[in-house]
Amino acid sequence: MDLLNETRALQSDLDAPDDPSSLDRSEAAALAERLRPVLRRHAHRYYVQDAPLISDAEYDRLYQALQAIEQAHPALQTPDSPTQRVGGAPIDAFEKHTHPEPLLSLSNAFDAGDVRNWYDRCRRGLRDAFGDVAPAVVAELKIDGLAVALTYRDGQLTTAATRGNGTVGEDVTHNIRTVHRIPLKVPVDTDVAVPERMEVRGEVFMRKSEFEALNERLAAADEQPFANPRNAAAGSLRQLDPTVTAERPLSFFGYGLGPVSEDAPALDTQHAVMEHLADWGLPTSDHVARFAAIDAAIDFCTEWAERRDTLDYEIDGVVLKIDRFNYQAALGSISNAPRWAVAYKFPAREATTTLQAIEVNVGRTGAIKPEAVLKPVHIGGVTVSQATLHNQDYIRDRDIRVGDTVVVKRAGDVIPQVVAPVPDARSGDETPWRFPTHCPVCGTELVRLPDEADVYCMNTECPAQFKRLVEHFVQRNAMDIEGLGERVAHQLVDAGLVSSLDDLYRLEVSDLIPLEGFAEKSASNLVAAIEASKERPLHRLIYALGIRYVGRTVARTLVQHFDSMAALLAASAEQLEAVDGVGAVIAESIVDWGAVDDNQALVAALRAVGVNTERLPEEAPSSTTDHPLAGKTVVLTGRLDAFTRREAKDRITTVGGRVTSSVSGATDFLVAGKNAGSKLADAQENDVPILDEDDFLDLLN
User: Are 219 and 280 in a shared domain?
Assistant: First the structure.
């Protein structure tokens, strides 16, 4: 019987008048034996596959029935029962666990040359036994978490230990049992046989979104927040009180097998192991690929170095492994690292330095943002001397002081941020910082609005706010005026050439030439770029105007319902709230913005100078209903001539499609531009339809 039918049958049985706890022992045992596998499979779909079949309330009803049975008949409770996830009594200390086989470290590679040198060494090491072979390589994302080894006997989880020093770790079984994404019994949802004994190796980690939510809860409870997801995962797993671990949102990805009993299936390759782990119901990464050529594996590494911020968890590199186990055995190990694997490490994105001062900046909405002035430090190829501190609560909750040694993180194109102080490095000369009471630019008394973390300058004439608004208006994701960055925006405002956004469209070459850094050609180019921006789609203008809470996604959604700026600003709060994705706060913000006479005048002035304020045909909602990409999942790879990657994504979402970062069984199309990466091979292996740029343009149009 399939899962849904078995669930419905159980629900029907639970509708009977008898309370499960009142059943006699034999009836209770029979019902419990039916409930446990169904609950395991539903939990697996919910926590691992993100594809629940039933509602939380329906799951809770089944869970409570099993709980009632086990409370009425304690002898029926089994170690692998879904009810055994809440943790037990605190322990005094972790016991040591000696690994039956060491969990080795990995040698590191920092660039393509290092990877090729490693691969060439492997080829030379295999030559005597296998001839001049070019072994296939498996590439796996290197999760930034805590390595663990899980031992299953007869399919039941019996022991879990941290890596420790590779030979001896800590027994954290009681905590691992509370992690919902790790099955207590395998297989979860298949009939695939499992060995009598096997050790599954993997990584415990915390997703970025869940880490942020956890830190918010800790701050609300006046507890110290964690510095980063890895620390949060390690701190949560090493709690002496397992009930604390049970409350933490830990995740797990399996990446290999340790020792297994003789009845284990004959698995000859790492790639086969990954497939079997998934078949047994153990979570594995969606981003594992096998490459016949090392150059393709290197492309995978460099691609993920750029794409790492698209994931909801931290990765710090890619692990490359020779795929065949007989090749691995022939290559062997050196001291504490295998010769057959290497970790391609991404550039470091965290460093420690000294917080020399804290300054405040005024944003385009009047929000006052504290900024750290740092002793310059090199992070990921960039020298960082300033970083965000978010708001006064962030500084207070983390007890960040001027003079502190601080951890600074730089993530891709995101502004560097101070993550946490290093209290152990304090000398006693550090000083707490106090938030200012008045705007540093115009002197207006600052206001903190109810239920908000930010403090605001409420003076709409504050010159600092207007400079930030101009910066926002011209940026790439808004009106996209090439050559008009922060420095030029400030020049234009300071010179009195731009005192309203529509003034940008009245600039002439002769206005710009006197400014520092401009000559005839550069001035002409900027005027041309400003002129070209008049034709931007309506959703870009809506975003560019800087209406509070209206980001790019909301702006695109609004254009599906309102065909002009006039229609949008004439809408009531009720009409705006009726739009999916627009809540009361956003609706109120739009209505308040439109109620200001100066804002209405600005829109009219922009329209008068030729800026598009109407919905373009490609933005129209009617284009999504019958469009061949509507409801389809698309993956982009390689370089397109007609669009940037962001523009292509915008066009797909505008017609009702969805863009994802990796090829899977749910992918409908792969769009392959020039120099397509490993995703092209993934699409070919999965029989995913492949579109070149011409095909893609035909489909869009």
Answer: yes
